[in-house]
Write a structure and sequence with these properties.
This protein is α+β, with helices and mostly antiparallel strands. The chain has one domain (10-85): YaeB-like fold (2-Layer Sandwich). The chain is built from three helices and five strands; from the N terminus they run E-H-H-E-E-E-E-H. It has helices at residues 7-15, 18-33, 81-85; strands at residues 2-5, 43-44, 53-56, 61-69, 72-80. The radius of gyration is 12 Å and the shape is globular. The termini are far apart.
Length: 86
């Protein structure tokens, strides 16, 4: 699996507390091993985020990504539920 990051994602990631960055890194390792692991709560989004998928990082942090090809994931946004969805 190829993982890429949009510039906006990188900027948002750097602003997260270190503990949240570590949680994302841990979840990403889990995602690479098994994207269907129920702990990730991966699901497709609708509305203004149609085409994006959401991955649960912790109780409030979500990472949104796009599937560009069968083996390429592009992380686009990361933040709290209210930051991302309003």
């Amino acid at each position: 699996m190829i993982i890429k990051y949009l510039p906006k994602f990188k900027k948002q990631y750097k602003k997260l507390p270190k503990a949240f960055q570590q949680q994302f890194d841990d979840r990403l390792r889990l995602f690479v091993l098994d994207p269907t692991d129920p702990r990730l709560r991966v699901h497709p989004l609708q509305g203004k985020f149609t085409g994006y998928w959401s991955m649960n990082i912790n109780g409030d942090i979500r990472a949104l990504y796009l599937i560009e090809a069968e083996t390429m994931i592009v992380f686009a946004l990361i933040g709290t539920h209210s930051e991302l969805y309003g």
